[in-house]
Automatic annotation (TrEMBL):
It comes from the Eukaryota. Pfam families: MOSC (PF03473), MOSC_N (PF03476). It comes from Cylicocyclus nassatus. Residues 179-329 form the MOSC domain. This is MOSC domain-containing protein. GO terms for molecular function: catalytic activity; molybdenum ion binding; pyridoxal phosphate binding.
Length: 343
């Protein structure tokens, strides 16, 4: 009897080991060894020095774990807050923000809106070291260095809010924020991981495609420009909505893990040239008609937030530039649908 139990346990144990071995081999074959397939080219790259303010179109960028850097500009490394309670401002509450320009040159941050402008030396911000706390979504908080009274006066006037402050991210300051990927029924191939950014909402990188924008625009009376959607990487020459199928993206030496669909909000309704919200709530209204998650567990998670683009985290750092070929690995359920694997 004892020998039978030992035999039974041995069989069970061997079966578990065999199952896990096959599972790991499957992951290796279909993920790490699945082919890199060219799908398009990099049409444009953007960095956004100040969260919710106007983006800066660049030719190249260095991709880091926390987001892209171009020249002296790190993506969304500044954030605007209410100096009294620490709550952050975005275009959702202050749509005018999307028209405020910002750049860092020769160690100086300059912000402009119309004829108004303000500047501050980054070294002065670091030396003064006035640490304040920004309160973001839910219970998220993130510390930053206050950028001084000149910036405060400029932003208070432009946004018509007293005691508006600008904070600068510095590595090592406290933050409880992170883009956490948890296991869901619809994301079984995505590695469980946590990505951290200075002040970006959901992930260090967001990719949009020209074909998906074109498809959306066929449904809109007034065409939407890509700047409404605030991508970091804008890809051309791929099929519409192909980004839904991507497991990872590879550009030169850079590899990005696709984490989840980018869920859209009222930010998309703001005209980036005027800072005014669309009275018809477009293109968000149309996106909700054609780009909601499929019914089931994914809809339960995404709710009525439509999908447009894909959020990504870093696998391997490096430089990328406009014009490079974009390669992807497809999720296994789509792999055999590609031209390289047609049956």
């Amino acid at each position: 009897m004892i020998d039978d139990k030992k035999l039974f346990l041995g069989i069970v144990g061997s079966s578990i080991i065999a199952y896990n071995t096959v599972r790991l081999l499957y992951k290796y074959v279909y993920h790490e060894q699945s082919p890199l397939i060219p799908v398009g080219t990099v049409k444009a790259l953007y960095v956004y020095p100040v969260k919710s303010c106007k983006g800066k179109k660049v030719f190249s960028m260095y991709c880091t774990e926390t987001g892209p850097i171009s020249g002296e500009v790190a993506d969304r490394s500044f954030i605007v807050i209410n100096g009294t309670d620490g709550k952050f401002y975005t275009g959702r509450q202050k749509p005018r923000m999307v028209t405020i320009e910002s750049d860092v040159q020769d160690g100086v941050l300059t912000m402009k809106w119309g004829e108004k402008s303000a500047s501050v030396k980054i070294d002065n911000v670091l030396e003064r070291r006035d640490v304040r706390t920004a309160k973001l979504f839910h219970e998220e908080v993130s510390e930053g260095l206050d950028c001084g009274d000149e910036m405060s006066a400029f932003l208070s006037e432009v946004l018509e809010e007293p005691d508006t402050r600008l904070l600068m991210y510095e590595k090592g300051l406290y933050s409880n924020r992170g883009c956490v990927i948890e296991r869901r029924a619809w994301n079984k191939e995505i590695p469980l991981r946590t990505d951290r950014t200075p002040y970006a909402d959901d992930a260090p990188y967001m990719i949009n495609t020209q074909a998906s924008l074109d498809d959306l625009n066929t449904r809109l009376e007034n065409k939407a420009e890509i700047e409404r959607f605030r991508p970091v990487i804008f890809v051309d020459k791929c099929a519409a909505w192909d980004e839904d199928k991507w497991l990872s993206v590879h550009i030169g030496d850079v590899a990005l893990q696709c984490l989840k669909p980018c869920l859209r909000c009222v930010m998309t309704t703001i005209d980036p040239s005027t800072g005014e919200k669309d009275p018809s709530v477009e293109p968000l209204k149309t996106l909700r008609q054609c780009r909601l998650a499929p019914e089931g567990p994914m809809r339960d998670d995404c709710k009525d937030n439509p999908m447009f683009g894909v959020d990504c985290g870093l696998i391997h750092p490096g430089y990328i530039h406009v014009g490079q070929t974009v390669y992807v690995r497809y999720k296994s359920e789509y792999l055999k649908q590609t031209p390289f694997f047609s049956s």
